[in-house]
Design brief:
The protein has a domain of 63 residues: Rossmann fold. The chain is of the alpha/beta class. The protein has a four-stranded mixed beta sheet with strand order 1-2-3-4, covered by helices on one side.
């Protein structure tokens, strides 16, 4: 059995799981070391996918597949929406709107197609 915290802690070499989501950078790095301690190979036995695509993701011993958020676009839009809100604070008819941005899947070695 793998030791540690999060989803990877419940993985053993006898598990039928083929992938594990790991949301935080610490869980991603801990997941890789925990799986190797248990004899579970990434990506041959188990795929790990992270979130936010921090620098560490590409530099890890097994480069991690990750979901990349459009951070610059998110910041720019947030600032624009805030300025619109401020500019119309005196009742100028500001309409709230929902903005949906599409993340990007950055595929690296920590995930391979199923065997």
């Amino acid at each position: 059995m793998v030791t540690g915290t999060g989803p990877v802690s419940r993985v053993s070499s006898r598990t039928c799981a083929s992938s594990v989501p790991a949301g935080s950078p610490g869980r991603r790095s801990g997941g890789n070391s925990a799986t190797s301690t248990a004899g579970v190979r990434v990506p041959e036995d188990l795929a790990i996918v992270g979130y936010d695509d921090i620098e560490f993701a590409a530099a890890a011993a097994v480069p991690l597949t990750s979901v990349r958020q459009p951070a610059r676009t998110m910041g720019t839009l947030a600032a624009q929406l805030l300025l619109e809100e401020i500019e119309t604070a005196d009742g100028g008819g500001h309409e709230h709107r929902r903005v949906v941005l599409e993340p990007e899947l950055v595929v690296r070695r920590s995930s391979l197609p199923p065997r």
